[in-house]
Write a structure and sequence with these properties.
The strands form two sheets. A seven-stranded mixed sheet has the order 3-2-1-4-5-9-6. A two-stranded antiparallel ribbon has the order 7-8. Helices cover about 35% and strands about 20% of the residues. The chain is elongated and about 55 Å long. It contains ten helices and nine strands. The protein has a single domain, classed as Vaccinia Virus protein VP39 (Rossmann fold), CATH 3.40.50.150. It is α/β, with parallel strands linked by helices and about 250 residues long.
């Protein structure tokens, strides 16, 4: 299948800049899965979630349709990777305990992807998909960053709306699991925040459309709002959906 590649052009920056997910999320997935023998992570990107999964599952099959994204990933030895779409993978039937999708479900053609989940998950296997919405900035930084965010607003792909709704409109398969609340918080320096802004798909599309870098255009103003603090606390609303196949 073809796919809309929004991240190959920013693959290196994406690997450096994106936040890491809370350890408690991966501990919980390992507990509710029927076993910890194997997990499939489609659209693994540059591996933000892969390494955490690899510390809890004996084998990880990490797939990614963007070869550039996968080339920038540093994976443990027991992670097997492949350039494959989420809608059609090379796993055998009933071969994994869990399927985990980190900040990527909105890019999939869901009927085909869910059919793959039904095929590859073992009885009682778990599908977990999560994402995060707009970053929560301290008020002076939020005010300074507002013109940058407004400049790129029209360049967000349509799939962004599904993230904004926390995947509320998804027609999920399987039985729902009750999911605990998880926090996604960091203390970052200004340079990391600017790199994060540079990793947006909307930023890449703005650059391609205008030939200008919106982060560079607004960096001084954002720095003014940041002030002299070496780091600042930042957060994201994290949402998690989990379903279990019939036992």
């Amino acid at each position: 299948m073809s796919f809309d590649d929004h991240f190959s052009a920013v693959a290196e920056g994406y690997a450096r800049a994106r936040p890491h997910y809370p350890d408690g999320l991966f501990d919980w997935i390992a507990r509710v899965a029927p076993g910890t023998g194997s997990v499939w992570e489609p659209a693994c990107g540059s591996g933000q979630a892969t390494q955490a999964l690899a510390s809890r599952f004996q084998t990880v099959f990490a797939t990614e349709p963007s070869a550039a994204q996968l080339a920038g990933a540093v994976m443990p030895a027991h992670v097997r990777t492949a350039v494959e779409p989420a809608e059609h993978c090379s796993l055998a039937d009933t071969s994994v305990d869990a399927v985990c999708v980190a900040q990527a479900l909105h890019w999939f053609y869901l009927p085909m992807f869910f059919a793959e989940c039904a095929r590859v998950l073992r009885p009682g296997g778990v599908l977990a998909a999560w994402g995060y919405q707009d970053i929560v900035l301290p008020p002076p930084v939020a005010e300074a960053a507002a013109p940058f965010l407004a400049a790129i607003r029209a360049d967000w792909p349509a799939e962004r709306a599904l993230v904004d709704s926390a995947y509320a409109g998804v027609d999920w398969p399987f039985r729902a699991l009750e999911v605990p609340a998880f926090d996604m918080r960091v203390d970052w320096p200004l340079a990391r925040l600017l790199a994060y802004f540079g990793s947006f798909s909307a930023t890449a599309r703005y650059r391609a459309r205008t030939g200008r870098d919106p982060v560079a255009e607004h960096a001084d103003a954002i720095a003014g709002g940041w002030g002299g603090a070496p780091t600042r606390p930042l957060a994201w609303p994290l949402f998690v959906h989990a379903r279990r196949t019939p036992a």
